[in-house]
Amino acid sequence: MTYNFFDFLQLIGALGIFIYGMKVFSDGLQKVAGSRLRSILKGMTTTRFRGIFTGFAATTITQSSSTTTVMVVSFVNAGLITFVESTGVIMGANIGTTVTAWMVSIFGFKMQITPIAIMLIGIFFPFMFVQREKLRNLSEAMIGFGILFIGLDFIKNAVPNIQDNPEMFMFLDQFTEFGFLSIVIFVFAGTILTLLTQSSSAATAITLVMLFQGWIDFPIAAAMVLGENIGTTVTANLAAIVGNVYAKRAARFHFVFNVFGVLWMLLLMQPFLMGIDATMTYFTPEAGSIFNTTDEIGRANATLALSLFHSTFNVINVLLLVGFVPHLVRLIEKYQTEKEGEDSTHRLQYISSGMMSSPELSISQAHKEIELFAKLIEKMHFSFQGLLFNKQKKQDKFLKKLKKREEITDTIELEVAEYLTKISSFNITEEATRRIRGMHSMINDLERVGDIYYQMSKTFERMQSEGTELQEPVMVRLREMLDLIHENIRLVRSNLEKDPGSIDLEKAMELEHAINSYRDELLEFHYHQLETNAYNNKVGFIFLDYLNRLEKIGDHLFNVNEALAGVKVKAAYERVVEERG
């Protein structure tokens, strides 16, 4: 036996180069297709077959089914899509992951890709330093593509030669003599290999190399691919541990769906493999049967056959089980039950900040949280209105709601800020950097709005304890001011649902002007009331406190609209107001 520990370390290093190349390739593709990924996200919430295509497209772009399924678990957890809507995406991801196997089979074994890979790195490396961002991202993807196949070539060379190391082959060969049980053993081996590499793509590449080098025969390789289909579900299930019940259901569905697929395939394994052999023999008769590969051409053909098996199995599995999805959903909901009071709201504390592999999609997730933040602010507005204008027996309820919701706003601001900071640590585009800065500004302003509502509730509580009451003319004007603020909140919520480039600040400027003008009008009313002794100074101070705080809420909401539009118009707006004045 000539294979030693140093050779084994070279194999580990080669695998590391392959996985690193896959990561660079995937990151570059995701940056190039950033806006397209957001469009794919929007397409998730339609029909199940649309979801299947979405999952296929997302996995093709990210080059990782684990990435797509973890992404889907995150979306379900965040409330972006429902558990039922996620099922189609998960099924599509299973088909999309076969693209990597085809790419490795064609470029890695059927042709000498290493010289081309090195040439690609040489061509695109200078473009890493250009000003144009899209060109930099494309060059990053192409360099990753080159590193990936250099790593694959290293793996092929680092795998021990059978002729020189017959002991190793005998060790593997002893597990292939148990018939159907051998197939089951190597299904488990494929699962463990995926867990160790944390990448179904890397596990598939290793399986293809083992098949190409003659370490395993075609049925054993097919069994390992089935195991890798199960292994790839573990990452999403680990991500769902910190998620809510809906995220756990999505992750369990992926596991159950893939296990069902492996079970029916094990029952039909032999005839299915015979069909693959017949297909390959028909199209490549010169290579011979995939069950008897004696030369390099035959072994390279077997790797293509394995990719065909992988794709055919996943496509048929989706077609067979897509009609049974409602039954699988009911089964999972039965065993993954929702506890009383659990997961009734979606806040960032239910989202693992380490889930998302794509910065673009992470930003979309954070944006969705800000939408929920604005919804919470609207609830605080209604609670404060209820506090002012409802009967005394309901006031304690509104005070408790405002206190609880103010605490939630603090938590959301902190956790969204931490999440955005983690996204910023990745190599992101300039546009993404601008959006993240805008989001930091938004959550700060929304948290300040929450604080102001809580401060006004404390003013009301103090007023109540002192026995002070606001007269009808004051209450009428406060209601009108609150109506203007509510209109502003609804505008913020509407703008949050739009694309960043389609925000019209004209309406925001009109509302800001209306709030400031009405504030000035109410100041005149306040001084007149004092001068005519219509109310005392204590009532006047409370009214003035409410008035200034409500105007401050308007300022913060205008800041949110500015951040959404990505422009600063405050100075220009103030100049316009001065000219009008």
Task: Describe this structure as you would to a colleague.
- There is one protein chain.
- With 581 residues, this protein is mostly helical.
- It has two domains: 5-335, no CATH class; 358-580, Phosphate transport system protein phou homolog 2, domain 2 (Methane Monooxygenase Hydroxylase, Chain G, domain 1), CATH 1.20.58.
- Helices cover 79% and strands 0% of the residues.
- The chain has 23 helices and no strands.
- The protein has helices at 5-32, 34-42, 48-62, 65-78, 83-96, 98-109, 114-124, 133-158, 166-173, 180-197, 200-213, 218-240, 245-267, 269-283, 296-321, 325-335, 359-389, 392-424, 430-466, 472-496, 506-531, 537-565, 570-580.
- The longest helix is centred in the last third of the chain and has 37 residues, at 430-466.
- It is elongated, with a radius of gyration of 31 Å.
- The relative contact order is 0.08.
- Residues 340-355 have low confidence and may be disordered.
Condensed summary:
The protein is mainly α and 581 residues long. It is 79% helix and 0% strand. Helix 3 crosses helix 5 and helix 18 runs antiparallel to helix 19 (430-466).
> First CA to last CA: what distance?
93 Å
Unreliable sequence segments: 340-355
What kind of oligomer do you see? single chain
Structural class by helix and strand composition: mainly alpha
* Shape label: elongated
If you average the pLDDT, what whole number results? 80
Number of structurally distinct domains: 2
